[in-house]
Every structure is written in structure tokens, then in C-alpha cells.
Amino acid sequence: MSAGVAVADDAAARRLWCSAGKPLLRIGSKGAASSHANGLADLCSHHPFVCVKLTGSTPDTGLSQLLELVAAGPFTSATPVLLATRKGRRGGRDALFSQQSRVDEVCSSEFHDSARDAALASKLEDEKWAAIREMRAGSDADKKGGTLHMQQHSSFKQRAPTPIAMANSYDTLEEFEAAIREYLATLPDGAIDDPSLPSALNYNELNFNGRPDLVEGCMKFGGYLKVSNDLGVPVRVGVKRSGDEPTPAANVARKAVALFNMFGKAG
Asked: What DSSP line would sit under 47-114, residue for residue?
């Protein structure tokens, strides 16, 4: 796979641009230098994919220079691969790069679906704690004013817990791998090796079983393909569930927004 050819097809490129954040690397009018190529390789080793912003009067020249430097290598981490490019909204050119081993993963629709679900879970967690802080602030104000009632206190105690296990932040690979092994042990006998079922650590499969925390962990530690290979979990690309109902845990996750609206807001 050549580092100088955009490898994402049109559909994958649209998904990538919709998920792309702010540029993590900028190359100006002086063009690309070896430090830019080394920086890009380092960024790609820590992020699923990286957006590069090229400015100046000849951004295409800067991109060509960067691609030549990347191709020349070598790097301590994997060589970056060009995923897609587009004209910048305010001029210049934007380019997306990823490690070669993650190209298939980051171009897949399930990767972006799971990333969106994980972002929703994180946002819901933030909103939950904001609501709790607001209720606590109101409770303190009521105590000072002498207007706190037992009914309000009881209502607060019911609202504080959340029924969905939000995405945990696994600080170390060892901690994450322990969580993966614990999860795998809960699966039905033979499910891991069943050729009719998706890979056990497939993002959609993890969401199906109500484990967005493991989705986030896989993304953090190299993607589910790498995690599966490292732990010896069989990978079955393209296998999907058909006609199955989500587990109760997954149903809870899908109803999280509704439950939060019912029990998680102040007042």
C-alpha cells in the first residue's frame, strides 16, 4: 500500500471527514520538513487517524513534500498512510493519515458508529454529573433557606444513580486486558469461536452486549483488530448478527437518553 495514494473510497472518506477533529499538525508556506514527517508518525501511533492542515500559496506542494518524506522513512513507529484529502474550507488543503495496520478499521462504518456511540455515552456522563452538581447546589441553597423537604431529599436519592455503565477510562493496557478477559468469560460457551457470530471484540458486538467502555478501550489501545490478535481472539471480518435481539444490558444502553431525561435532571 503506497503512502502517497489516498486509500479511502468516497464513502469511507465521507465518514472520515465527518468524524475528523481539528488538525493536529500544520504545515505552512515553507513546506514540509523531516520534523513534520516524524511528528505525523508519532501522532498516528497515538490516534486512530490524524488531520493535517497545509496552508500557504502552494499547499499541494507541501503535501507532496510530506508524502516524499514519509515514504523515505524509516520511523520508529509504523509508516503513516494517506487516507483522503480535500480543499480546506478557508483555503489550503486538509489531509487525513493513519497507520497502515488501522486503515481497514478506521475506514469501516462500524468504527465511526461506535465512536459516535462512545461520544454519546461520554456526553451523557458529563450531563449526568452536571445535573447532580446542580441538584446538590440547589439542595445546599434550600438547607440554608430552611426550605428543604424530605420528599425532595428522597427524590434526589432516586435520581443520582444512573442505570447505564458509562465508558470507563482504562489507564493501563494491563487493566484493559483484564477487563477484556473478564468480559470474554461471560460469553456463552463457544461464542468466541462460533463462525456464525461476529468477532467477540467487534465494536458492534461490544455495543450489542452493552459494553461501550470496551469499545473506547479498544480504540485507545490500537483498535479491536490489534487487541483481538494480541489476546488470541478470533477475528471474523464481515460477519454480522441477523435477527437477534439485543441483550438486556444493550437495551439499557440504547435507552440511556430516555432514562436520563426521566431520572437524571434536576427539578
From this structure: SSSEEEEE-SS-HHHHHHHHHHHHHH---SSPPEEEEEEEE-BTBSEEEEEEEGGGHHHHHSHHHHHH
Strands 50-54 and 93-99: what pairing? antiparallel
Using an 8 Å Cβ cutoff, are 52 and 95 in contact? yes
Sheet holding 50-54, edge to edge: 25-27, 50-54, 93-99, 80-87
DSSP strands (E only) in the chain? 25-27, 50-54, 80-87, 93-99
What backbone phi and psi angles, to 5 degrees, belong to 178? Answer: -65, -40
d(CA 223, CA 229): 10
CB-CB neighbours of 22 under 10 Å: 6
- Cell matching residue 3: 503512502
As given in the structure block, the three cell numbers for residue 106 are 478506521
Among residues 218, 184, 176, which one has the least CA distance to residue 200? 184
Distance CA(5)–CA(152), nearest Å, equals: 62
pLDDT digits (tens, 9 = 90+) for 6-22: 788 888 899 899 888 88
CA distance 217 to 227: 10
User: pTM of the entire structure?
Assistant: 0.49
Please tell me the distance from the alpha carbon of residue 167 to that of residue 216, in angstroms, as a whole number.
7
Q: In this structure, are strands 80-87 and 93-99 parallel, antiparallel, or unpaired?
A: antiparallel
Q: What is the pLDDT of residues 161-207, one digit of tens each?
A: 333 444 457 889 999 999 999 999 998 888 898 888 889 998 888 88
Q: Cβ atoms within 10 A of the Cβ of 200, count?
A: 23
